[in-house]
Amino acid sequence: MTGSRIKSAETLAPAPIVVLSSEEIRAQGLASLGDVLQTLTVQSNAINTQANNGGDGSTRVSLRGLGSNRTLVLVNGRRFVPGGTGANSSVDLNAIPAAVIERIEVLKDGASAVYGSDAIGGVVNIITKTAIEGIEIDYYTGTSGAGDGEVMDLSVTTGLQSEKGHIAFSAGYHNQRPVWTGDRSFSESDKAYDWEKNDGSYNKNGSSATPEGHIIDRLGDEGNEAWQAVVEAAGDEAGDYHRDPDVGWRPFNWAGISSDGSGDTYNYQPENYLYTPQTRYSSFLSGTHTVAEDAKAYFEVVYTNRQSDQKLAPTPLFIISDGIVVSATNRYNEFGRDFIDVRRRFVEAGNRNFLQDIDTYRMVLGLDHRLGSFDADLSFSYGRSEGTNVNEGHFILNHVKHALGPDEDCTGDCVPLEILHGAGTITQPMVDYIQYIGVGRGYSRQQILQWNLTGEVARLPAGPLAVAAGLSSRWEAGAYLPDPMTASGNTTGSKALPTEGSYSVRALYAETQLPIYKAEAVSLDATAAGRAFDYDTFGGGFTYEAGSRLQLSQGLAFRATSSNAFRAPSIAEMFLGVSDSFPLVSDPCSRVDEAGNVRELTAQQERNCAAQGIPDDFEDSRAQLLARLGGSTDLDPEKAAMITAGVVYQPDFLGGLDLTVDYYTTKIEDEIGTLPASLILSNCYSQDVPSDCDQVVRDPDNHLINRILATNTNIGETETSGVDFGLNYIADAP
User: Fold this and answer.
1) Which value, to the nearest 10 degrees, does the dihedral of the CA atoms of residues 20, 26, 32, 36 take?
2) 8 A C-beta contact, residue 144 and residue 235
3) Domain that holds residue 592
4) SS3 helix, strand, coil % of the chain, rounded to 5?
5) Angle (nearest 5°) at CA 71 between 66 and 72
6) Residue 357 shares a structural domain with residue 489
7) Residues 82, 120: one domain?
8) How many domains does the chain contain in total?
9) Is 685 exposed, middle or buried (0-12, 13-18, 19+ CB in 10 A)?
10) Ramachandran region of residue 54, left (φ > 0), alpha (ψ -120 to 50) or beta?
11) How does pLDDT run across 413-470, given as a tens digit for each residue?
12) Best CA proximity match to 114, nearest among 670, 570, 564
């Protein structure tokens, strides 16, 4: 049973365990393993194919909501290779063929003493079928209630049995069609609750980068007569202009979105996926063969190919964020002056696409054998996930600068760019000059050699004293190499440097199951486990686990565990190349908010902003700022302490009923992560944490925030607790 190398039933274990049989999985009518696991009440907040912006087509599991990197996923009791486009830290459940699953065991407790790193939130152990004979064909198809999002899943499984062993093979095909956000009323626009009215109504938010064009005048230059006409027509609201196709330039209306006439902001939602599409091809091969009276060789081979994509609205260009100037001498600038803040949505260039093509391989070779009175298992596993990530729709930064700069600097193959005269004015040659297709590549590799031993060492009055012990060596490596434009920073999209690194760990563990007392229906058992480990990155350590189970009657038992666990820093956390993100944060020193409304600063913000030389009329209406992230090799492992306590009730008068109630608490210290950009800004300007001000980099000329620096560190602690209720009833149909 998962959580121990010593065999026991799920309701006899001291730690809470949920078991899903293949029949229960099939009865749910879901097409993939990830969909099944994400329906569990113990799972929350893991990424899946409904994640479009920031998604990668993967489906992961996060027990207790503590993160997929704190949930250990096993296949037949052995680690599965992390999946994705490279340097990943958790398993992509899409890589495990659902057709070969015999059962899924979910341990709702830490298990680092038995399995090592990552088993903080819990453990998911997927057990595959062995007793397969003949041919089994599974076909599933369906659509959403609105008639879109079609899904089709087909698998063929076959196997042979003999006195010497077995062989099983399965092949599958899966196709998921997309659902668009614009096709649902709840997602057709980006909504924000109206706290001023507080009557249940929402405001519709959009982007200030519009297809028609948006100018914020930060220089105040006079320009020529054409520009003066724009300023005079705007009256008191001069400084913020929208190009109306009917009347020309006028004051920008931040009140709503242009698609319903409530404002001028751009509604990007209809251009996005709500449910992302993907296609998968999978195969699985396993077998056993008796090579001696007390020895059986076995093997497993898995291969999966996933092709997935995400789609976003056309690229927005915020020239102020990239240091671009629309020159007064650009041929399409009729106003005779420079502009440093023009916002334009490039609908002429089409949507942004992010395409993944990922191959996942895993091979296991092993030998089950007897060693005296003990069962022993020696195995070697090799796993690799490799993929490409294609980005379409981003722009070459220096090409945009040249195309918007002075005409005399736009020479050779340079094509001047038009962004001041509304939608439809950007031609295909203009797009071809600035746009590029980026291809990034990466991999994750895992090798594990392990030997486990289990058996009984003595017969005590209350039952057998059972033990298990083992040794393991594990090597992990990973890399992600972004496309040259992204790596060099010569892009209007996010910048990212290559990520590459590796680590190894050696460990030994031991556990025991001790029967203390037994008399008729009353019994008391205890368990204990310990693990010593040594990493070549941060050093060694020790984890433990202790548990007990008190059976008071035939149908009533109490159980409890106390343990500590750890999570080693992942390759990405240690070796992540500097990369960019754009969190939804605004400048605390700005006198206007992202909607252009006047914003009052607190007294502390006034003092801290003034201390950095920011003028008292400073304005920045950007709703997203650049945060620059990166890895660190100075990380300590996360440490966790867990306690569970529960009761199991199986009444004699109602056979087939299992009722469980379990309390749990988990505290994680030295949590690895980055400080949110919002917290860094708050610490610097709203609190008095001057060290965080060093992480905020401003332009010395216009005082705008250029970037917020946030590298991985041991940032703090997380604590969670709760109660699990389980009810399982099995009865024969009449």
Assistant:
1) -40
2) no
3) 587-621+675-711
4) 15, 50, 40
5) 165
6) yes
7) yes
8) 3
9) buried
10) left
11) 999 999 999 999 999 999 999 999 999 999 999 999 999 999 999 999 998 999 999 9
12) 564
